[in-house]
Amino acid sequence: MRALLIGVALAFIGLFLLLPLFVVFTEALRHGVLPYLAAIREPDAVSALLLSLKIVAIVVPINVTFGIFAAWTIAKFRFPGRSVLVSLIDLPFAVSPVISGLVYVLLLGSRGVLGPLLQDWDIQIIFALPGMVLATLFVTFPFVARELIALMEQQGNDEEYAARTLGAGGLQIFLRVTLPNIKWALLYGALLSAARALGEFGAVSVVSGHVRGYTNTLPLQVEILYNEYQFQAAFAVASLLALFALVTLVLKTVLEHRFGRELKTH
Amino acid sequence: MQVAVQGLSKAFGETAVLHDINLLVPEGQFCALLGPSGSGKTTLLRIIAGLEFADLGRVLFDSTDVADRSARDRQVGFVFQHYALFRHMTIADNVAFGLQVRERKLRPAAPVIKRRVAELLELVQLADYGARYPDQLSGGQRQRVALARALAIEPRVLLLDEPFGALDARVRKDMRTWLRGLQTKLGLTSILVTHDQDEALELADSVAVMEHGHIIQCASPQAIYDQPATPAVYEFLGGANRLTCRVSNGQLFVGDALLGSLAAADDAAADLYVRAHDVELLPTAPGTGLQGELLRLTWGGGMTHAQVRLQSGDTLEVDVPPWSSQGHSWLVGQAVTVRLRRYGVFGSLAGAHPAAFVGI
Q1: Is A158 at the interface with chain B, CB within 8 A?
Q2: pLDDT in tens, A47-105
C-alpha cells in the first residue's frame, strides 16, 4: 500500500512537473546550442529579460517595505478593522490576475476613470512600465506580508517591551530586536514574491499592450514567439524562466532549512 | 528608591481593570502583588514600568511623578514570565543590550561593558554561559539571564511578572530562595506579581492581595495569613472552612454550641472561617468544643485529612497530624469533638466585613 502511494506520487510529479521541464529544455536545444544561444540573444528577447528583471527590482523592495509595515501593524496591535485588513491582504490570491489587470486598465487607461486626468498631466501608466509594476505589485503583495504576520504573531511583543525597559528607542528596537528575528522569513517572502513577479502572465498581459522590445516581459515574449510558430525560440526563452525557477527552488530549500532552525529558537 | 502608587485607575475600553489603587513600597522592600488571573496585578506592574499608562492617578518614584516618562526613561528592571530574551543574541549580548543602546556619551567603553557583563553573569551563577544562545539554556537559567540583563542598567526598582510561572515546581522553589537572597544583598526595591500564595508569603516583606482590580489587603505576610481582611483573602490563601455562626450578647455560637465570647459584635448572623490545620480533632469530650461525627478519612502523607459533620449540619475539613491521635485510631462514623484553635469571624451585614480574630 505504501509503495503504491509513493509510486502514484512519484508518477504524478514525474508526469506533471519533471516531464514538462525536460520538454522545455529538449525543445529549446532541438537544433543545437548555437540556435539556442541565438534565440536568447535576439534583441527582443534580451529586452524582455531586462524588463522582467527591472520589474522584479522595483516590485520586491516595495513589497518588502510595505510587507513589514502591514505585518507589524497587524501582528503587534489590536484595532477595529484588523480582521478586514487581514482579509484584504489575501485578496490578490482570491482574484484572478487577469481581473486585477483589467481593473487597472479600467481605472487608469485612456478611457478609464482617471484616464483623462492622467492624459492632461501627460502621464502614461497603462501600456507602459508603471502599469506593469502596479499589476505585478498587486499580484505579489501577499507573499512577504503573510510570511511575516504568522511569524510575528507567534513571537509576540515581549522582546520589544524588554528592549524598551532596557532603554532602547523605536529605531533601535526595530533594527536590533525585531528585524533580526524576522530576517529569514523576510528573505523567504521576498524570494517567493520575486519568483511570482518574474513569472506573472495574466495581469501583466492585460496592462502591457505587447509592444515588442518595449513592454514585453519574458512570459509575454514566450507567448508571442509561440503564436508565431517559432517553437524553438519560444522554448529557448521559456528555458530562461525555467532556470530562474530552479534557482528559486534551490534558494527556497536552503532558506527553509535555515529558517526552520531559526523558528525553533523560542 | 521608594515606589508609591496613588489613586490609580485604568480601564481597557469599557472594562475597568484597576480601581483607585494605592500602594507604597518603601526603599529596599520586597512587595508581592498576589491575586487570581484577571485581578489586575500584571496591569498594575506594567503601569509602574511605563509599559501601560493609567487613566487616573499617579506613580511616584521617590517624590518624582513619572507619569510622562516612558518605560525607556524610567530605569526599571523588568523580568517577564516567559523570559523575553533576545533569541538571536548570545547570553552575553543579551546582558549587554541595555548598556549598548545608550547614547554615545553615556555608553560605557567596550571593555567596561564586557567586565560588567562578566560580573553580572557571575552574580547569576552563569559565568561560563556567555557565548551560548537562549535556546541552549534551561528555563531556570534563562530566567537568571533575564534578571542579569535587567540588573545591567542599574535599575532603581526591580519588577517581576510571574517570573517563576513557567518553571517546574522544584526549580521554582530553588529560584525563590536564591532570588530573595540576591534581593536582600542588593537592597533593591522590588515588586513581584504572582498567583502563588506560597511564593508571595515566603518572598515578600509585604503582600498586596488583589481581586477584581482592587487591593483588598496589604500587609506583612504574617498579618495577611493570620488576619485576612475579607473572606476572599481566606479563600485565596489556601482556603478555609466556612461555618455559619451567630453572635448574641457578646457570645459566639455555632448552632447551639457556645464557642466563646466575642467583643464588639452586634446580635447577628456571621460567617466563621477556620483553616483545616487550625482545627483540633478529639475523641468525644462533652462540653469542650463542637460535637460531630467523623464522615471520612483520607491519608495524605504528613497529614490525615478528616471530614466531620457537625451537629449544626455544617461539614468541616480537618487536618490531623500523625502525632495527635495519641495511640488511638479514628474510625469513620464515630462521634468526635472538634476545637477551633484559631479563626476569623466576619459580619455579613450590609456587605461590610467587620472582622474579629480569635486565637487560642
Answers
A1: yes
A2: 999 999 999 999 999 999 999 999 999 988 888 889 899 899 989 988 898 998 888 88
Three-state DSSP class for residue B333? coil
What are the grid coordinates assigned to B181, written together? Answer: 537572597
Which residues of A are less than 8 Å from B150 in CB distance?
165-166
How many C-beta atoms surround the C-beta of residue A39 within 10 A?
21
DSSP, res B255: T
* Residues B9 and B117 grouped into a single domain: yes
B112 pLDDT above the threshold of 70? yes
Helix (H) or strand (E) run with residue B303 in it: strand B303-310
Question: pLDDT tens-digit profile of B11-42?
Answer: 998 899 999 999 999 999 999 999 998 899 99
Angle at B300 between CA B297 and CA B305, to 5 degrees: 35
Which domain covers residue B270, as residue numbers? 240-359
List chain A residues with CB under 8 Å of B13: none
CA A158 to chain centre: 32
Helix, coil or strand: residue B106: coil
Write the CB contacts of B137 (distance below 8 Å, at least 6 apart in sequence).
B91, B129, B145
Question: What values do phi and psi take at A41, rounded to 5?
Answer: -95, -5
Quickly name the fold that domain A33-264 has.
MetI-like fold (1.10.3720)
Q: How far apart are alpha carbons B299 and B302 in whole angstroms? A: 8
Question: Does the distance separating the beta carbons of B101 and A168 come in below 8 Å?
Answer: yes
DSSP-derived secondary structure letter, B328: P
Domains identified in chain B, total number:
2
Q: Do the Cβ atoms of B78 and A165 come within 8 Å?
A: yes
ipTM of the complex: 0.85
Both B224 and B249 in one domain: the answer is: no
Q: Are residues B127 and B260 in the same domain?
A: no
pLDDT given at position B350:
38
